[in-house]
């Protein structure tokens, strides 16, 4: 075991030992098993691996939302295309089967794109994201995918003066990107929607919906197969090069090879420092009783977030639980990923403390399941979608924590890029958006990558603690420094 792994574990144990016991100790918690969503909905029946060398018109590496949405839209646009999806484990093994089910209009990097390409270009990007939320809901209806979608919008709360200052600034920024229906609430209006302890304000947008990530994923995979796309599972791609996707069972040759591997990208040859696999972890409670829901409110079933530097995200599930996520241990040395979703004991404890901090009246509610997954983080924290016309290689991702909707926009953009390149259509609005063909430098080699990311999150947590204890009216200066060092 490396010294940094030891450091990870030691920090874990120490934090767990010193964590204030604000809540009852959790009863038996299922940890891992990919995610709670699979425990609830069942693992999918396996699909056949690649039987040997093959050819296709388009080969897609990765069976998450990005890969499957891309297959979906390409096949719809050009039914004659032979499309093959290669998935290392099973479709939805990655973040698409583990996320918080926030289908919302946020996109990583918008503000930087505004600086690089002008405000108008970023407004168009934002409008495309707003429309993407509606597009995902539309397709679920058209394809009869029952994904527990509830269009309650997104509610983000502040519970310290510094968070309130950030909330107001955030609200103004969103209005400046053309969001007309966003609302700002004070403490009383917030409490009418949801009883979050000490909440001093909130902002709400209608451009969001709660959904069940795995039900969406499974429905999408079935829709893609019904259209005639070939999916091979248990087929890891070891190398991508122009016109080739290489696996241990054979090579698939195709004019277009699309990399849709997000947080797992570092495991591909030549991609070790492209996107950093950042952990995000979640817990799901046992179902709440009617009285407990009465004490919480949350009848609008908005997806719920906060304005902390190390922020949380949550949803009220269709079967009456709270599923809540946050950062936990942010990154594993050497860009390693978790073992089938298992997360650290200290992270489970920290997430439970956030739950009880938000809703002290739920201190007796047990956590049923905990899990984690990886997101893809580019060095400049900007999502991108690209087709290199000289090689036929394409990729989309780097969504940071906002990929549920963004993957759909990326997929439609990849469709348009391929259709233009193959002469089936001309330029479209989507391919002129500022995130298309954005280039970014690689992450630093280890140990600088590990030190930088752990340092940044330690700083954010310290800033959150400081804002809670001092009740300062403005954001802590150390968090601003961390932002700058991180390149956000
Ligand atoms: C815990 C958690 C909570 C999140 N919550 C939200 C949320 O509420 N809202 C939101 O917008 N975003 C959220 N995200 C982010 C969002 O889930 C992702 O951005 C999105 O699912 C990315 O989809 P993807 O298809 O690009 O990647 P993934 O879903 O990770 O899919 C990549 C696929 O590629 C496969 N693969 C990787 N390497 C290879 C290879 N070499 N060969 C073959 N196959 C390979 C993997 O097995 C995987 O199935 C969350 C992420 C996590 C981890």
Automatic annotation (TrEMBL):
GO terms for cellular component: cytoplasm. Transmembrane segments: none annotated. Residues 1-22 are annotated as: Disordered. SUPFAM superfamilies: FAD/NAD(P)-binding domain (SSF51905). It comes from the Bacteria. Residues 13-22 have a biased composition (Low complexity). Residues 1-12 have a biased composition (Basic and acidic residues). Residues 57-417 form the FAD dependent oxidoreductase domain. This is FAD-dependent oxidoreductase. It comes from Streptomyces liliifuscus.
């Amino acid at each position: 075991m490396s010294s940094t792994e030891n450091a990870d574990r030691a920090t874990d144990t120490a934090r767990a030992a010193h964590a204030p016991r604000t809540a009852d100790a959790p009863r038996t918690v299922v940890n891992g098993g990919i995610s709670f969503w699979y425990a609830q909905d069942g693992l999918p029946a396996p699909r056949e691996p690649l039987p040997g060398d093959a050819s296709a018109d388009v080969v897609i590496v990765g069976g998450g939302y990005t890969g499957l949405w891309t297959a979906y839209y390409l096949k719809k646009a050009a039914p004659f295309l032979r499309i093959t999806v290669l998935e290392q484990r099973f479709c939805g093994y990655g973040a698409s089967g583990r996320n918080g089910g926030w289908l919302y209009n946020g996109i990583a990097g918008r503000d930087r794109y505004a600086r690089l390409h002008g405000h108008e270009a970023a407004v168009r990007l934002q409008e495309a994201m707003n429309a993407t939320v509606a597009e995902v809901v539309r397709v679920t209806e058209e394809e009869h995918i029952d994904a527990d979608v509830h269009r309650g919008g997104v509610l983000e709360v502040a519970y310290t003066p510094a968070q309130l200052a950030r909330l107001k600034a955030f609200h103004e920024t969103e209005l400046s990107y053309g969001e007309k229906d966003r609302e700002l609430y004070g403490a009383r209006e917030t409490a009418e929607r949801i009883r979050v302890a000490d909440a001093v304000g909130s902002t709400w947008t209608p451009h969001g919906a709660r959904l069940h990530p795995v039900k969406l994923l499974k429905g999408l995979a079935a829709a893609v197969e019904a259209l005639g796309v070939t999916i091979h599972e248990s087929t890891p791609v070891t190398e991508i090069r122009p016109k080739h996707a290489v696996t241990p069972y054979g090579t698939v040759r195709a004019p277009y090879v699309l990399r849709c591997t997000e947080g797992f990208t570092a495991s591909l040859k030549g991609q070790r420092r492209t996107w950093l696999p950042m952990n995000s972890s979640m817990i799901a409670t046992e179902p709440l009783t009617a009285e407990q829901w009465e004490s919480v409110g949350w009848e609008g079933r908005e997806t719920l977030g906060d304005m902390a530097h190390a922020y949380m995200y949550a949803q009220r599930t269709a079967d009456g639980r709270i599923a809540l996520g946050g950062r936990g241990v942010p990154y594993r040395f050497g860009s390693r990923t978790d073992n089938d979703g298992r997360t650290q004991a200290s992270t489970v404890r920290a997430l439970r403390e956030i739950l009880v901090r938000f809703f002290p009246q739920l201190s007796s509610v047990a956590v049923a399941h905990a899990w984690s997954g990886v997101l893809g983080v580019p060095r400049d924290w900007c999502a991108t979608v690209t087709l290199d016309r000289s090689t036929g290689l394409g990729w989309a991702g780097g969504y940071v924590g906002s990929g549920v909707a963004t993957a759909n926009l990326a997929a439609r953009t990849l469709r348009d890029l391929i259709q233009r390149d193959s002469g089936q259509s001309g330029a479209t609005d989507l391919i002129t958006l500022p995130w298309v063909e954005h280039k970014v430098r690689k992450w630093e080699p280890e140990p600088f990558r590990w030190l930088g990311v752990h340092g940044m999150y330690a700083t954010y947590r310290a800033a959150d603690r400081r804002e809670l204890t001092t009740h300062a009216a403005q954001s802590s200066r150390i968090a601003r420094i961390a932002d700058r060092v991180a390149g956000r």
